[in-house]
Write a structure and sequence with these properties.
Elements lengths: L1 E5 L1 H18 L5 E7 L3 H13 L5 E9 L12 E4 L9 E9 L3 H11 L5 E9 L12 E5 L5 E2 L15 E4 L1
Parallel strand pairs: 2-3, 2-5, 5-6, 6-7
Antiparallel strand pairs: 1-9, 3-4, 8-9
The structure holds inosinic acid and magnesium ion.
Length: 173
């Protein structure tokens, strides 16, 4: 069983709001958007186009690959870098872009790693958050939606590799 939890239109409206806020917050700065692979690729595509449409184009895009779940639905609590950034973030304004924060282990790992590289600033945007599942406290600067503790799929999020192309976020029963 599955049902649409967050529709493509709701996501679009939310990204519009987030992009408006980001544009205000970074208006005089160059921004480095860092997406966490694999799940953030669709969010990154939509967010970057929304920023551009609102007249903010002073940004670069880069990706970092992190794997934490392998093929299960439980966090291994031991995230690993599968692909590093290919730019230096020293003194840069970095905005991490992540699809979902669950236990927090993955995001905490990436935030620590990037902070060690001494960016001018590091903020984090996540589309979805499951607050009840949190094991590690992480700082979220821009948040799309808080959701219940249910497995979700679509809009870049997968179940054992599948389902990423669904334009809506669906909930698996
Ligand atoms: P965390 O380390 O437990 O916060 O896990 C974050 C990562 O787990 C995310 O980047 C996702 O790749 C994956 N994840 C967590 N919850 C879900 C879900 O409900 N559906 C799909 N992937 C999820
Ligand atoms: Mg992910």
């Amino acid at each position: 069983m599955e049902e649409v939890l967050i529709s493509r239109q709701q996501i679009k409206d939310k990204i519009f709001e987030l992009a408006k806020q980001i544009k205000l917050d970074y208006q005089d700065k160059k921004l480095f958007l860092v997406g966490i692979l694999d799940g953030s690729y669709i969010l990154m595509a939509d967010l970057s186009r929304m920023l551009f449409e609102q007249g903010f184009s002073n940004f670069e895009i880069n990706f970092i690959g992190v794997s934490s779940y392998a093929n299960s639905r439980e966090s291994s609590k031991n995230p690993k870098i599968t692909k590093d950034l290919n730019l230096d973030i020293l003194d840069k304004h970095v905005l991490l872009v992540e699809d979902i924060v669950d236990t927090g282990w993955s995001l905490d790992f990436v935030q620590r790693l990037l902070n060690e590289r001494k960016p001018a600033s590091l903020k984090t945007l996540v589309l979805l958050s499951k607050p009840d599942r949190r094991e590690v406290k992480v700082k979220l600067d821009y948040l799309g939606f808080e959701i219940e503790n249910k497995w979700v799929e679509g809009y870049g999020l997968d179940t054992a590799g599948l389902g990423r192309g669904n334009p809506d976020v669906i909930q698996k029963k």
